[in-house]
Amino acid sequence: MPNEVKVKVMKAAAPRERTLREKAYIPEIARGLRITAAHFWGNLFIHIKRLFGIRTKERGSVTYQYPEERRPLSPRVRTLHRLVKREDGSPRCVACMMCETICPAKCIYIIGADHPDPNIEKHPLQFDIDLGVCVFCGLCVEACPEDAIRMDTGILEFSAYSREGMIYHMKDLLR
Amino acid sequence: MAFVWVTLAKIGVTLFWVMNLGAILTWVERKQSAVMQDRIGANRANIGPFRIIGLFQIAADSLKMILKEDWIPAGGNRFLHTIAPIISVFFALLAFAVIPIGNTLTISGQEIPLSIITTDVAILFVFAMLSLEIYGVVFAGYSSNNNYAMLGGLRASAQMFSYEITFGATIIGLLMIYGTLDLQELIRAQKGSIGGWYPRWGIFLQPLGFFLFCAAGLAETKRNPFDLPEGESEIVGYFVEYSGMKFGLFMLTDFLETILISALVTIFFFGGWQVPFLEADGFHFGSTAFLLSPVWVTVLQISIFFLKLTVFLWLFMQIRWTLPRFRYDQLMRLGWNVLLPLSLLNIFITGLILMIWG
Fold first, then answer.
1. Average of per-residue pLDDT across A19-42
2. Which of B35, B40, B319 is facing A40, going by the closest CB pair?
3. Residues B232, B251: contact at Cβ < 8 Å?
4. Per-residue model confidence (pLDDT) at position A2
5. Distance in angstroms (rounded) separating the CA atoms of residues A69 and B104
């Protein structure tokens, strides 16, 4: 039998026998309480120091107090899209439809038209991204030959009261 | 007539400290769990720019509870559903009637004992109230027309019955030593010191009893690690069909019971309002004396009682946030196979020692 796959059966490790100390339960409870109490008093001390205005590098908690305090974002994290502008403020996009084609969620809707400048072939009349559908894969950014769309705004909060509200138009994306 | 006014005043004072402490405990629970888990905890409730470390959360919570819709499940027993939280909180509050917060206060020649009722059966009274409280939980489970609530109620009743035996049996050792059921007398009997070193508190005479009482008392409060009647992650428990202030009353009962058990531990094992070396007229260290007026002595006694109470509230909160919940069979095994024999052993050893040296 040439194609036989050999499977090695391994025994799962037996659960460790509990020591007498662990079985007695009380010492282990005391150990657990010591850990939590140490955290409690240590953190409380730091909080009190802060309360009295003593500057300290220690942090009493690992919390980011979100709306006021934000976690630093990695520079490569993909956030809300933006359309890059030319020097005159018009979008750099040439309506080549590369991003709309590659988009796996099919959330980009472009209507292109001839550009008045004869050196530039086309420009978008409409450039909508439905953020309710977008999966933030970043393929549109990769596909763009003109470097016209980027996902580097750092904005992660977008919400709306309706599905229509989640569709971002060109003027929103050009900001 | 004076007696009526004094009693009414004492009821007012007791309700004041008990209810306020219960309300503050809701905040303490959030903050303490947060601080010990390296979090910050509730700090957003505010009036204008003032947040005062989240203390407005108490007001926000109670406002929410009062304004919420009071909902009674279809097919539920309307009467029992309404009366269950009231029973729960009523008996929890009633138990505080015999809890002494100080010795006596002398006003214009009259001695006023600092507990609402001074009775020879105070301990039995507290235990009776604790047992009657179970009816609230059982009624809540029964009247909700909900399997999970029913399960919670059944679990609660089984757990309470199992642990109440230990609960009662552990303090028999104390009663044998001090020979009284009156809480005030029990505290007075804990005066003085053993061999001039330790205060004559229950913990030094009944160390095993202290552990057992704490364990059974925790089970009595229905909080972690004994919160199977509630079991919030699996059955939500006996108050699953409660909303608004009725649910709030059950929550309040939990905190009131925590206060009650802490007060009992303080009274039974840590001398209640007894301050070491403090006599009726001031401190006495051997031959040197530091005299105080009776009012200051009373103030000191009340303060030390609340200090001890706070320490135990802290400890019970810490235990509640440290230990995971028991499985139900583990709970029963612990109650019947470990705690009950140990409490009987405690009685036996105490009796033996009393027979030899007593």
1. 88
2. B35
3. no
4. 63
5. 54
Q: Which residue of A32, A47, A65 is in closest CB contact with B35?
A: A47
Alpha helices (H) in chain A, listed in sequence order: 20-23, 26-51, 98-102, 139-143, 170-173
Residue B321 to residue A63, Cβ atoms within 8 A: no
Give the closest-approach CA distance of A160 to chain B in angstroms: 24
Predicted pLDDT of residue A16: 83
Tell which of A26, A29, A31, A40 to mutate to test the B interface (max B CBs under 10 Å). Answer: A40
Instruction: Give the tokens for residue B165.
Output: 């035996």
Cβ <8 Å between A29 and B323 = yes
Q: Read off the pLDDT band of B40 (50, 70, 90).
A: confident
Which residue out of B37, B38, B52, B338 would a mutagenesis test of the A interface target, given it has the greatest number of A Cβ atoms within 10 Å?
B38
Per-residue pLDDT at A1 exceeds 60: no
CA distance A80 to chain B (A): 28
Span B110-132, pLDDT tens digits: 778 888 888 888 999 999 998 89
Residue A37 to residues B40, B41, B153, B191, B321, Cα–Cα distance (Å)? 16, 17, 33, 31, 10
Q: Which residues contact B335 (CB under 8 A, 6 or more apart)?
A: B159, B162, B163, B166, B219
Whether the Cβ atoms of residue A122 and residue A96 lie closer than 8 Å to each other: yes
pTM exceeds 0.90, yes or no: no
Nearest Cα residue to B144 out of B89, B82, B84, B81: B81
| Closest residue in chain A to residue B320, using alpha carbons only | A33
Chain B contacts in chain A segment 50-69 (CB below 8 A): 60-63, 65
Using an 8 Å Cβ cutoff, are A90 and A78 in contact?
Answer: no
pLDDT tens for B306-339 read 999 999 999 999 999 998 888 888 888 888 998 9
Inform me whether the pLDDT recorded for A3 exceeds 80. Answer: no
Q: For residues A27-38, give the mean pLDDT.
A: 91
Those residues of chain B whose CB sits closer than 8 Å to some CB in chain A are 32, 34-40, 211, 318-319, 321-323
Please report the DSSP string for B246-260 in residue order.
HHHHHHHHHHHHHHH
Q: Would you state the pLDDT for residue B358?
A: 67
Cβ distance of B35 and A39 shorter than 8 Å: yes
Query: Is the reported ipTM for this assembly greater than 0.90?
Result: no
- Model pLDDT, residue B109: 74
Which amino acid does the sequence have at B326? F
- Taking CB atoms and an 8 Å cutoff, what residues of chain B touch A47? 35
